Every structure is written in structure tokens, then in C-alpha cells.
Amino acid sequence: AVMRNHVHLVVGVPGDPEPDALLRDFKSYASRALNGRWPKPASGTWWTQGGSTRKLTDVPAAVRYVLEQEYPLVVWSDDT
User: How crowded is residue 72: how many other Cβ atoms within 10 Å of its Cβ?
Assistant: First the structure.
């Protein structure tokens, strides 16, 4: 099944911020960008409640998983 209704992010950040705060900030930033380009969805929000906020122990495996998705709409990787 093609799943075009979700986003995968693997990010590295300095310090040890709370994962829930990072997810909130990503959703907030993306919502502003989406709202500036398209009308809000009928539900009033772009997002479901929650989302995975796991701290990864095997970052290379997580990056491979994201990069190997079958039908990605966009793939971006900063290999620096």
C-alpha cells in the first residue's frame, strides 16, 4: 500500500532536548508553512495526536529505513 499521509524524520540535535518538545516544534513550524500555502484540512489540523518520539540507538539503520521507503514523495539527506 502506498502511504502518502505521514512523515519520517531522523534528526540529530545538540544537548538532550525532550523528544515531545522536538515533535511539537516540528509540527508547529510545518503547520505554519502548510497553512501559508494551502487551506487547512477539514479536520482543522494537519496532524494526528501524538507521533513517535523514540530516541534512536541505531541511527544508521533508521536513516536506511527512511531512505528505502518504497514510494517517497521527497527524500533529503544531509550526509555532512
Answer: 12
pTM of the model: 0.73
Q: What is the DSSP string of 19-80?
A: HHHHHHHHHHHHHHHHHHHSPPPTTS-SS-S----PPPS-HHHHHHHHHT-SS-S-------
Q: Which residue has the cell 510545518?
A: 30
Q: Which one-letter amino acid corresponds to residue 39?
A: P
Round to whole Å and give the CA distance between 74 and 53: 21
Cα–Cα distance for residue pair 64/14, rounded to 1 Å: 22
Buried b (16+ CB within 10 A) or exposed e, 11-39: eeeeeeeeeeeebeeeeeeeeeeeeeeee
pLDDT digits (tens, 9 = 90+) for 38-63: 999 999 999 988 888 888 889 899 98
